[in-house]
């Protein structure tokens, strides 16, 4: 049986109905959380066991041989219209933040940035392939500046041809990606429209200086975190898109993750930041982080306005470094027993972690995304809070209960289990390509399977934590 077919058969065995109830805005799980964690870990382990027993070569090679289908005039015109639309929305987002109301619920900027662009585009790219280069508004600005300004103003915008420092690799992109996460989950004014617009403007200026200095290839490969981020996400899709010239071809699910060119430690760290950032976002929404934060504040005697900034930064960086350390140790274990270099193991298996990152995005954002996307209906009529009613939709009221807590939990559960199962399947395919002996495939894959099982249990505990009643610090009995 095809391993991917097995995955969906096993998922069908998961319970899909539960009578959950509210308790002070918290929800009780129908059974102890440990049952879900052990059960999900067992499903991931059984998937690994089946792959080992079947011991067949990947059946996904055929689709990888399909040829690119080049876009015709009509398709290129549709892409052009899409690019213009996205660029106008980009300008509207900046304009709304600068001159619209500063009420985040009445201004379209926060919704466009955090819901449509950050979450919506992540999911869309994962499904339909990496179409970000087709619509990237910053790259569009670069192309407009490099083509229009020389003829209009006599200014030559030739790339300065500065050689990008090889030692930096993609570490700037890692830093910027963690910076976006910091703004989203730590910065208390992350929903203030004016602040968001200024961040977009600062990044735009920095982007243009950098891309004209180093050239588009080096800039997008090493510094532009969005280009790297969407490239990684798009590799799981069955659609492989080519930007110049515009073309598309089909491939098997996740096939693009089996080989990622120019992969190094910085980009591996970027992938691990994709995992840790979403989990940290979920961690901050529960009582567990409240307890951790309180302990850190007492431990380091942090006080003042910026104390929570410091603690949040420590938590974000600490979880990322924890993921990096765990991945390194697992790859070191695998390299030791398989008799290969740890660098080779780290590079070969890094791409197989990306389905887990996508699963975390779905698990953490499903309910919030569905709810907030509805806000675009009234905001479309009055994007800046100026009491307009352009499309007669300003009085629309969102349906909060479209995805309640019980369905949000099961969406999260299925997403996490599915993501880890896909990762297990891809890791097995990597091992089959790397080792000729089935026994060596088993030996090399076992540490990675253990890592997947650990990730499954850990991520479920973080996602479920806001739904489970924990004894708060205030409720805890005082020490004698």
The number of helical elements comes to 18
Q: Using only CA atoms, what is the Rg?
A: 24 Å
H-E string: HEEHEHHHHHHHHEEHHHHHHHH
Helix amount: 55-70%
Sheet with the most strands?
3 strands, antiparallel
**Any low-confidence stretches, pLDDT <50, length ≥5?**
1-25, 57-63, 470-480
Strand order of the largest sheet: 3-5-4
User: Kindly state the mean pLDDT as a whole number?
Assistant: 84
The number of strands is 5
The separation of the N and C termini measures 61 Å
Count the domains: 2
* Overall SS class: mainly alpha
Shape: globular
Portion in beta strands: under 5%
Detailed description of the structure:
The protein is mainly alpha-helical and about 475 residues long. The chain folds into 2 domains: about 1-60 and about 265-470, no CATH class; about 65-250, no CATH class. About 65% of the residues lie in helices and about 5% in strands. The chain contains 18 helices and 5 strands. It has helices at about 5-10, 35-55, 75-100, 110-130, 130-135, 135-155, 170-185, 195-215, 215-220, 225-235, 265-285, 285-300, 305-340, 340-350, 355-375, 375-380, 405-435, 440-465; strands spanning about 20-25, 25, 70, 240, 245-250. The chain has a 3-stranded antiparallel sheet with strand order 3-5-4, with no helix packed on it. Strands 1-2 form a two-stranded antiparallel sheet. Strand 4 (about 240) and strand 5 (about 245-250) form a beta hairpin. Helix 1 runs antiparallel to helix 2 and helix 17 runs antiparallel to helix 18 (about 440-465). The longest helix has about 30 residues, at about 305-340. The chain is globular and about 65 Å long. Residues about 1-25, about 55-65 and about 470-480 have low confidence and may be disordered.
């Amino acid at each position: 049986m095809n391993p991917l077919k097995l995955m969906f058969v096993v998922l069908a065995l998961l319970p899909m109905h539960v009578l959950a109830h509210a308790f002070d805005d918290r929800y009780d799980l129908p059974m102890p959380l440990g049952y879900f964690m052990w059960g999900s870990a067992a499903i991931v382990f059984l998937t690994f066991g089946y792959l080992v027993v079947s011991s067949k070569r990947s059946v996904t090679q055929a689709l990888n041989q399909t040829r690119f289908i080049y876009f015709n005039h009509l398709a290129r015109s549709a892409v052009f219209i899409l690019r213009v639309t996205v660029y106008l929305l980009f300008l509207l987002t900046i304009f709304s933040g600068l001159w619209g109301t500063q009420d985040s619920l009445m201004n379209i900027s926060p919704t466009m940035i955090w819901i449509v662009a950050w979450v919506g585009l992540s999911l869309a790219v994962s499904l339909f392939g990496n179409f970000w280069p087709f619509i990237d508004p910053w790259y569009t600005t670069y192309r407009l500046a490099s083509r229009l300004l020389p003829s209009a103003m006599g200014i030559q915008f030739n790339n300065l041809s500065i050689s990008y420092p090889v030692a930096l690799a993609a570490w700037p992109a890692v830093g910027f990606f963690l910076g976006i996460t910091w703004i989203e989950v730590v910065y208390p004014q992350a929903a203030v429209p004016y602040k968001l617009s200024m961040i977009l403007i600062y990044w735009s200026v920095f982007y243009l200086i950098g891309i004209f200095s180093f050239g588009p290839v080096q800039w997008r490969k090493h510094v532009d975190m969005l280009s790297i981020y969407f490239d990684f996400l798009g590799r799981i899709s069955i659609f492989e898109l080519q930007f110049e010239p515009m073309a598309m071809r089909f491939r098997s699910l996740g096939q693009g993750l089996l080989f990622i060119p120019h992969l190094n430690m910085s980009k591996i760290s970027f992938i691990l930041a994709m995992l840790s950032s979403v989990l940290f976002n979920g961690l901050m929404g529960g009582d567990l982080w409240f307890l951790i934060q309180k302990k850190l504040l007492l431990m380091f005697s942090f006080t003042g306005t910026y104390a929570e900034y410091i603690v949040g930064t420590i938590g974000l960086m600490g979880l990322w470094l924890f993921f990096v350390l765990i991945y390194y140790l697992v790859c070191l274990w695998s390299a030791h027993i398989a008799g290969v270099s740890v660098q080779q193991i780290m590079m070969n298996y890094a791409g197989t972690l990306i389905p887990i990152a996508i699963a975390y995005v779905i698990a953490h954002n499903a309910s919030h995304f569905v709810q907030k996307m509805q806000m675009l209906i009234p905001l479309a009529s009055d994007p800046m809070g100026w009491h307009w009613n352009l499309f007669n939709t300003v009085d629309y009221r969102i349906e909060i209960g479209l995805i309640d807590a019980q369905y949000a939990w099961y969406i999260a559960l299925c997403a996490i289990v599915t993501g880890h199962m896909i990762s297990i399947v891809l890791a097995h395919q990597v091992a089959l390509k790397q080792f000729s002996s089935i026994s060596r495939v088993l030996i090399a894959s076992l540490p990675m399977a253990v890592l997947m099982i650990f990730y499954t249990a850990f991520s479920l505990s973080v996602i479920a934590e806001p739904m489970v009643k924990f004894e708060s610090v205030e409720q805890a009995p005082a020490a004698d």
